[in-house]
Amino acid sequence: NKTVFHFGGDAPHDDPRQKDKTVTGGKGRNLAEMASISLPVPPGFTIATEECLRFLKEGGDFGDGLRSAVDEALRHVERTVGKRFGDAADPLLVSVRSGAAISMPGMMDTVLNLGLNDETVQGLAAASGDERFAWDSYRRFIQMYADVVLDLDHGLFEEALEIAKEDAGYYNDTEMSADDWKTLVAEFQRIAEQELGRPFPQDPSEQLWGAIRAVFESWDTERAKVYRRLNDIPHDMGTAVNVQAMVFGNMGDTSATGVAFTRDPSTGERAYYGEWLVNAQGEDVVAGIRTPQYLTSARREEAGADKPSMEEAMPEAFAELARVFDLLERHYTDMQDIEFTVQQGKLWLLQTRNGKRTAKAALKMAVDMVGEGLIDEKTAILRVDPMALDQLLHPTLDPQAPRDVMTKGLPASPGAASGKIVLDADTAEKWAHRGEKVILVRVETSPEDIHGMHAAAGILTARGGMTSHAAVVARGIGRPCVSGASQISIARAGAGEDRTLTIGDRGLREGDTITIDGATGEVMAGEVATIEPELAGDFATLMEWADRHRRMKVRTNAETEEDCKAARRFGAEGIGLARTEHMFFDASRISAVREMILAESEAGRRAALDKLLPEQRGDFESIFRAMAGLPCTIRLLDPPLHEFLPHSDAEFEDLAESTGIAVEKLRRRAAELHEFNPMLGHRGCRLGITYPEIYEMQARAIFEAACNVAADGEAPVPEIMIPLIATRRELEILRALVERVAGEVFAETGRTLDYLVGTMIELPRAALMAGEIAEEADFFSFGTNDLTQTTLGVSRDDAGRFLTPYVDCGIFARDPFVSLDIEGVGQLVELAVERGRGTRDGIKLGICGEHGGDPASIGFCEKVGLDYVSASPYRVPIARLAAAQASL
Ligand code: ADP
Ligand code: MG
Ligand code: MG
């Protein structure tokens, strides 16, 4: 198999393997694709990912095939550019760039200006007529090569540069003269030799293979592995290597480098967006060494910046760039994230990819692009990650709330967050682990901070632009971020000392609460009030499309009027689970509940239940009214009774007073109710079988409420759900009970209503016996929380201790309580669906576990043909979109 692919110049770009990013990586594939549509791409070649995997497997051996293919490819680049690699008079220089199939920004390595040595640097100076440029390029090369390939401490080189600048009294790198750089190169070489015990490599070919080796090996670095783990990227893909002729953004004031997005990645607005730097190279823009300039005049004016935009300073190159933006968007039919360089007025493209974006931007772009005729509705639906909607559904800062603004930085990633200041990633992780909300505050972030950024509720940096590491990562993982807040200075305190910082003129310390607003860049003291999100506009449009394309209905898990209303605003089409016990915990009712539980006779229980009946009826009435005729599944009492028992002495005394029963007696009764394993104990339908009067009261409350609401509003369709059924007989007994009560209530009120009686499938036996159970059930609702617990034999409340190691070891692909174990538990669901339908054609089927709001699990529900999923109110839109994606 061919493993080295040419791009640029007269190279053919039609090999299907070259177009396959699993072979050439995203960067390599897109470089070839840009070259194939005649965009200006410096020529080069891509070494396939399989060479990386082979190299790593064979313990660091390149193989003869690869060596000769690379030599041949290098000759092609030489011919295209008209320069020779290592030529002392006019050398070809190259970059060596990593590029995996899935982008891992900032994770892996790149070396620029490779091919420079003490001789070729003279050639470069002579050929370009610019000595300063040549020596600047050489020192950059040594710095990068030392860091990436030789694994030397980059701090040593940075320090040497700082000292040189200090000695000369310079502030910026741009003040360094040709001679200054020359002197520094000698110093760099001295440092390298001292650290290495041998001279810095002068042979260009040795340099090249060293860099290729380093890129291959960077696939297996710890930080790359962590990134892959966090982003669900497989470890066995390998990285491609791109070797590409250099173009130079550091050849004076007609040269520049920059990064750009074809649309605003924060808001989705159709406006070019990006940053650039004059007379600079490579990573200068993202590294935050100099503050980058705005790309467009509009942005610059908006920000009130005085350095010119690219549009103003280089109108021709900018116009060319704008033409390329439009071309690339049409070609890829998506927003592009582009890296470019201008060498003496000429534009060169170095990278393009589908740009990362915030949820808000994803939504706006998807809707806009349909309007522009770039994509169709289905593509738009598939473009938005359902989980990302979460970012939009949560509160933002209340504009009316008082704010104590301490400073302002760049609005790098939207959303608002409050939390305690932490000054490093490890602390962020530690505090977050014990349940604190934290804001990670750093001078700037680097790939080593990723774990802390994940743990933090928000990220604040003192340095770096809108495309800095902090900004890019924060947008990707949906954390609010304010970057480049230059009025922050962080004191370096030793271990054990208080760790402090100043924000503006304010002294603060680690642990103090602040609020950041990623939409405005404001940094505020303390916690600031928030408001609910806006659900109109693009959000509503996309949801409408999703609704048109989905088959499954989406219901909600709710039991309060407030939740019902929120869920309906989010588009819920009914209630999939109302847990009646939640109403029992209410302060005003708990004593009647306790009285009922602790009663020693049926008569005692009935007396207490009589007090609860009007309360429950009221609950159901408000639910039925809020849901206005939509189906409502109401589950009868499920938890073990002891959950409602008094705990403290004071609670026992209160109860004794209100019931007139002695404290001693109450305590004894409470002790009798103790269970060793309540999850598998006296709960669910077992309560209904042993204390039928409880379910009778609940059924009566439901039917009375339904009749009352039907009298003056929209008639509800109650779906009464019996929990924890394992056998047909249980359901037969309880169904009869419900039907009897319904008959009584209908006789009393003179009104009849449609209703259903069904069950949860949450025990393996129920799933296995679904055929028989369906004889008694109008519907099944898969209670996948309990079904997961009982199938895996894992208690959800105790799994914390081993779940993370289990996921890390690959025993579980994901937390089975978050994303359904499709392989295992899924089989029981599938089986129950089949057997249930076998008995009762058209039996209504839904899911009401936590999984009903998880996109992967929703995909499974679609596959097995459930009628609906039910999710918590805030997850309803996620479920609507995921259900649509599942049916496309
Ligand atoms: P990353 O994947 O971290 O973005 P890249 O391989 O894209 O790394 O390289 C980083 C930067 O180096 C690019 O954005 C570009 O500015 C610069 N660069 C890479 N190759 C070349 C080249 N051949 N000529 C000029 N600049 C280059
Ligand atoms: Mg890089
Ligand atoms: Mg790049």
UniProtKB/TrEMBL annotation:
Task performed by this protein: Catalyzes the reversible phosphorylation of pyruvate and phosphate.
Domain PEP-utilising enzyme C-terminal: 536-886
Entry keyword set: ATP-binding, Kinase, Magnesium, Metal-binding, Nucleotide-binding, Pyruvate, Transferase
Reactions catalysed according to its record: pyruvate + phosphate + ATP = phosphoenolpyruvate + AMP + diphosphate + H(+)
Domain spans labelled Pyruvate phosphate dikinase AMP/ATP-binding: 68-303, 316-367
Annotated stretches, region: Disordered: 1-25
NCBIfam families the record matches: PRK05878.1, pyru_phos_dikin
Cofactor: Mg(2+)
EC number, UniProt record: 2.7.9.1
UniProt enzyme class: transferase
Domain PEP-utilising enzyme mobile stretches: 436-521
Protein name in the entry: Pyruvate, phosphate dikinase
SUPFAM superfamilies: Glutathione synthetase ATP-binding domain-like, Phosphoenolpyruvate/pyruvate domain, Phosphohistidine domain
PROSITE patterns in UniProt: PEP_ENZYMES_2, PEP_ENZYMES_PHOS_SITE
GO MF terms held by the record: pyruvate, phosphate dikinase activity
DNA repair among keywords: no
Family of this protein: Belongs to the PEP-utilizing enzyme family.
Keyword NAD: no
